């Protein structure tokens, strides 16, 4: 058995083709053990379909992702820009897909030149957390007992891995600027939770 977490993108592909782009994260993906150009059975619950699996390499990315046609995604009731776990079973040559909506990482929380109603998330951090790249969308931000609804802003710099809040929220939530915090994102309710990192320096 081998598994990995990937984001789903819709692409113009043959109906029963799935393309994986792996090794975007720091650790090598277990899914690289799947034979190249393998014909597998994609499964989700009672839904099954024979597919052709392909790999693409050398693409710039910060999170592993898979691509399939809109028709195949609809058949398996999968949603674009959502995160899923793929599990490969060599004994029956199957690939099982299941939702994996919760992601977390340690990130630097900075005070930036952002409006009080805005949450600025660098693209690299956005990718690691599985936050859909939709400028201006509403993200619920939770810190302790506090909750605020903020508009998402994604800076143009693709290698930006910081999260920026206005000084208003940092003061109100008693967050020290330029400190690393544990950040968790739940795709089901678009909620970003901030908590002290066990490794943060005080």
Describe it.
The chain is mainly beta and 202 residues long. Helices cover 9% and strands 46% of the residues. It contains three helices and 14 strands. The protein has helices at 70-75, 123-129, 167-172, and strands spanning 2-10, 17-21, 39-44, 47-56, 65-68, 83-89, 94-99, 102-111, 118-121, 138-143, 146-153, 162-165, 179-186, 191-196. It has a seven-stranded mixed barrel with strand order 1-5-2-4-3-7-6. A seven-stranded mixed barrel has the order 8-12-9-11-10-14-13. A hairpin with a 2-residue loop joins strand 10 (138-143) and strand 11 (146-153). The longest helix is centred in the middle third of the chain and has 7 residues, at 123-129. The termini are far apart. The model has no long low-confidence stretch (mean pLDDT 92).
Helical content stands at: under 10%
Terminus-to-terminus distance: 41 Å
Question: Count of helices?
Answer: 3
State the shape. Answer: elongated
Instruction: Describe the main β-sheet briefly.
Output: 7 strands, mixed, barrel
């Amino acid at each position: 058995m081998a598994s990995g977490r990937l984001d789903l993108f819709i692409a113009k592909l043959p109906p029963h083709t799935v393309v994986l782009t792996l090794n975007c994260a720091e650790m090598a993906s277990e899914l690289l053990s799947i034979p190249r150009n393998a014909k597998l059975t994609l499964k989700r619950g009672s839904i099954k379909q024979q597919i052709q699996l392909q790999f693409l390499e050398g693409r710039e990315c910060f999170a592993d992702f898979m691509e399939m046609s809109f028709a195949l995604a609809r058949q398996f009731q999968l949603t674009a820009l959502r995160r899923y776990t793929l599990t490969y079973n060599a004994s029956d040559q199957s690939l099982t897909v299941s939702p994996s909506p919760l992601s977390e990482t340690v990130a630097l929380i900075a005070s930036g030149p952002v409006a009080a109603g805005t949450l600025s998330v660098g693209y690299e951090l956005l990718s690691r957390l599985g936050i859909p790249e939709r400028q201006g969308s509403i993200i619920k931000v939770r810190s302790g007992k506090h909750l605020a609804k903020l508009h998402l802003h994604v800076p143009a710099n693709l290698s930006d891995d910081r999260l920026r809040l206005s000084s208003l929220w940092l003061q109100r939530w008693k967050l020290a600027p330029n400190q690393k915090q544990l950040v968790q994102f739940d795709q089901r309710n678009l909620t970003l939770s901030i908590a002290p990192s066990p490794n943060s320096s005080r």
